[in-house]
Amino acid sequence: MLSSTTPQTLSDLYMPSAGAPWTGLSASLLSPLAKSNSYPNVASSLSSSTPMAMTNPPGGTFRQGFSSSTPYPPPDCYTGCDNTSLSMLHDKINMQSKGIENLTNTVRRLEEERNFYYRTVRDLRDELTHLNRHVTDNRGDAHSDQKVELWQREVTQDIHSLQQQVRSRGTDDNASSQVAALARDLHELKIHLHDECESMKRTIDGVKSRLGKVEMDVNVLRSGNADLTLKQQMAEECTLKMTNGHKSVAAEVSRMVKDRKENKLDITELKSSLRTVRAKLGHIEARMYAGVGTPGKVPHGADFDNLLSPDTSDLDLDLSSSDGGGFDGCELDSHDFTMSGDDVKLKPGTETFLESADLDLSTTDLTSGDPLDINDLT
């Protein structure tokens, strides 16, 4: 601050009281300081230490018509004053006025810079909030959140320290150097913030790339699961078809085995029926030979058992004797009966003879699903 003290002689001549305000300077010079709330010390010091008006000197009076716009009254209005001293005082007052104007301009410039820095800090805070929201939306890891919070605290501390420096340096004499230092600090802070923002952007880009890779892996796994599901469905369909085919084959085999068993049973029944027929025919033949009394060779014993054995493969039963003997007109051979369907029928000539013997062969029933063929009987 500019000193408000003057030489003792000039103070005794022109300043009766140190605290009296001067009216020779324009009040508009201190209006920015009076309106400013950020620099109360500067405004109060300027108001208390800067003379704003001049009173009548103890040895003389101001001449009539003196205007407050005049920097200093003419020297001839004072009695007993040296012209050299008055010129020096006039020069010092002009220097003080210029210094006050410079200080006012400096304060105004500082206020503008402070507003600019406040806006810059507000923009940085908005950008920081946006980055925090963006990181939260992208679900950054815990380390990134801690880093952002730490960086935010550091930035807040730097902002508070800068505000304190601005308030404390507002009343310094060397305002230009302090403003330059403050500008350098703010520039360094801006560079630091820019670097931090770039680092955060790189971190966010890395998180985005990792998220993209994870999404690609998830899509690949989903497609692989879909392929596996399709293959499993195809395998299940093939297994079901094979199972159905196996069941049908097993059913067919079971049916064939059942048919074979039924055929075996039918063949067994046919063989039994054939043995019964052969036995009856042998019995009939024996009775025929015994009833007529004609000597002839009747098969008996082992020959008769061989004739009626189930191993006999044909129905050609020769009822005649081996030497050609027979009964009188009653010779019976295999041509005297026929086998039609399931009944055994005799020829008309033989039928008359069997009626006399009271033998009914119609009761012999050969149960078979197919027509009886002599070649099928083994």
Task: Report what the structure shows.
The relative contact order is 0.05. The longest helix has 118 residues, at 175-292. This protein folds into 2 domains: 8-173, no CATH class; 257-376, no CATH class. It has helices spanning 8-14, 31-35, 40-49, 83-137, 142-168, 175-292, 301-307, 348-356; strands at 337-340, 343-346. By secondary structure, the protein is mainly alpha-helical. It is 63% helix and 2% strand. Residues 93-127 form a coiled coil. Residues 48-69 are annotated as: Disordered. Keywords: Coiled coil.
Which features would summarize this protein structure in a list?
single chain, rod-shaped, mainly alpha, disordered C terminus, CCDC159/163, 8 helices, 2 domains, 378 residues, two-stranded antiparallel ribbon, 2 strands
